[in-house]
Amino acid sequence: MEGRWRWLAVTAIAPVTWGATYYVTRHALPVEYPLYGAVLRALPAGLLLLALRRELPRGEWWWRSLVLGTLNMGAFFALVYVAGQLLPTSVAATIMATSSVVMMLFGWLLLAERPRAMALLGAGAGVAGVVLMLSGGGGEVNVRGVLASVAAMIISSVGFVLTRRWGSGTHVLSATSWQLLAGGLTVLPFAVLVEGAPPPMTASTLAGFAYVSVVATAVAYAAWFAGLKHLPAGSVGLVGLLNPVTGVLLGVVIAHETLGRGQVAGLVLVLLGIVVGQVRTGARSVANIGGVATADPVPGAVSDAVSGGAEGAVPRVVPAAVPVTGRPEANR
């Protein structure tokens, strides 16, 4: 149990930094450059991680990197950039929080990870909190921004679940760097054709891109994919509810956006949903990675989450005495 919460803490790095990304995008990055915004976020982060690992994809990981890079990075970053420019920080971050439920759904469909009762209860509480935060103020809601945010949430949820399905046996930093480079290179031609020359750079713009590329992308995605490698997709999705909490708090503290009583109640409900959704009942859990039932790993040091070197990174085979139904979550 202690190891599980340690992986959850590592995973939480990602949504916290992503919640801050909305504020940075809205206040530090140039307007009308969503495609270049995606390129300048993905490529530097991918090159940084590739320099750390120095490993190129092999075999099927060439096309997998293209698919995952487009879903998780290329198209996703462009849509998030649009949402960040058109929506208040709290609203944009809040819409993305519904991925907690969507990831459970796709985890069930693609990984046979049936949602646990407590996870569904936590997700329900989190979504209710999201609705309260969204309806409690925060500025005008732009329809195009909402559509961009919803589209980003759906495609990234699919991409994250596929990353868990395909990521077994591949180093976290390597797979992350390949996806980032593939996503950035996919968007680059469209950026040149549609937006022309790159955006002008100022000190604040450079600082903004440095944050979203290094912190909110290289570090955040390494932590997020490490969580997906060791935790069920539904559990990781619930941790993503920290995204709107960060967005709302930053919107209030830094951007002076309004925070009504409903939003306060919603924020508390979201945090409660995250905790409740991680509570387990019954026998030891079984995870399904790549169609093979394995017992949940017990991680080593926190630093191993991004290095891929934890003892728990190697799944343990379930003893024959433990009943496995083919639907891992049925044994939780």
- End-to-end span in angstroms? 13 Å
Coarse structural class: mainly alpha
- Total DSSP E strands: 3
The largest pleated sheet is described as: 3 strands, antiparallel
Order of helices and strands: HHHHHHHHHHHHEEHE
Tell me, rounded to a whole number, the average pLDDT: 79
Sequence of strands across the biggest β-sheet? 1-2-3
- The value of Rg in angstroms is 19 Å
Poorly predicted runs are: 283-332
| Count of alpha/pi helices | 13
- The total domain count is 1
| Helix content estimate | 55-70%
> Globular, elongated, flat, extended or rod-shaped: what is the shape?
globular
Strand content is: under 5%
Task: Please characterize this protein's 3D structure.
The protein has a three-stranded antiparallel beta sheet with strand order 1-2-3. The longest helix has 28 residues, at 203-230. It starts with a helix and ends in a 15-residue tail after the last strand. The chain is built from 13 helices and three strands; from the N terminus they run ααααααααααααββαβ. Helices cover 69% and strands 3% of the residues. It has helices at 2-28, 34-53, 61-86, 89-96, 99-111, 117-135, 143-166, 172-195, 203-230, 233-239, 242-253, 261-278, 304-307, and strands at 286-289, 292-295, 316-317. It has 332 residues and is mainly alpha-helical. It has one domain.
